[in-house]
Description:
Layout: E1 3-7, H1 12-16, H2 18-28, E2 33-39, E3 53-58, H3 67-76, E4 84-87, H4 92-103, E5 107-110, H5 115-121, H6 135-145, H7 163-169, E6 183-188, H8 200-211, E7 216-220, H9 226-237, E8 241-243, H10 250-257, E9 262-266, H11 269-276, E10 281-284, E11 304-305, H12 328-331, H13 335-347
Parallel strand pairs: 1-2, 1-4, 2-3, 4-5, 6-7, 6-9, 7-8, 9-10, 10-11
Helix pairs in contact: 2-6, 3-4, 8-13
Amino acid sequence: MSNVLIIRLSALGDVAMTIPVVYSAAEANPQDAFTVLTHENLLPLFINRPPNVSVKGVNTKSTEKSIWGFLMYIFRLRKCNFDVALDLHSVIRSRIADVFFRLSGKKVFIIDKGRKERRNIVRRPPKKIEPLLQTVDRYAHVFHAAGYRFDETFTSLFEKMPVDEKMADEKMPVDMAGEKKGFWVGIAPFAKHKGKIYPVEKMAQVMAQLSERDDITLFLFGGRGEEEELLNRWAEEYENTVNMAGRYALSVELAFMSRLDVLVSMDSANMHLASIAGTKVISVWGATHPYAGFYGYRQPKDLAIQVDLPCRPCSIYGNKPCYRGDWACMREILPEQITGKVNDYLRGV
């Protein structure tokens, strides 16, 4: 038996992508104990986990914000007697932990992020892009290097627990959506960076077109503040539309996402949340690209919407300014392409 520490501190989507690998590895190696170290705000992601998986939270925004504070936290972990550390993050803080465990005589295995390959894929044209290794596969390679062999058996956070039971556990209000009639379609129109956000005025057209269907109820997902305010306006303006933003805990949103027929999402955390909830995602891509390795877990490739431009992708994370100045990668996607993809998908459900 071995006691394994898995380090992935942030961000929401990246931590979500660890779950298929961690849960699959834990089920294939029941004699071993796996502990995930992540930001304390992300602990609710790890619901319905195998009995040999535990989670520990660290707060890199306050108590462990400083390098010294983080180092002291890692030092306190020595009482857990970990045998091996798997670094799925490879950033300054996780590398500090790596050094600590190595000095303690423990084995450490670190993810290869493929940074050189990523730099090549986002350089300016002319260029030829090829699919890079998916992040989930990079995570799996770290486990395999450490000797933990497994097949990815994970399908959904709710595979072994009825969604209704989970929602009851979370005390979800009965009147949140009512009895399901017709199709439930989620819309997650935001992302952290502009290069990954479909223009708001165009997404409003998508909303208008989909809300015209009597057999569709739209559910809007986003963050608090300005995002929540916009989604509230849309929920008031368009028929059969419910705003979920800012109303429920993360675990509840996950449970609800698993009841959707499909989610329309940017290249964002919501794409990954829906993926681990077992829901299909129609994803919209601009400055980023599915080839960079951040496509949703087990999502069909034909559900990605994007335009073929020689400059794409220009950014791995969508955080760089458009050097053309026109954001054509998003603006050339027509609202009808998105609604058409939704309608086509629902015809096959």
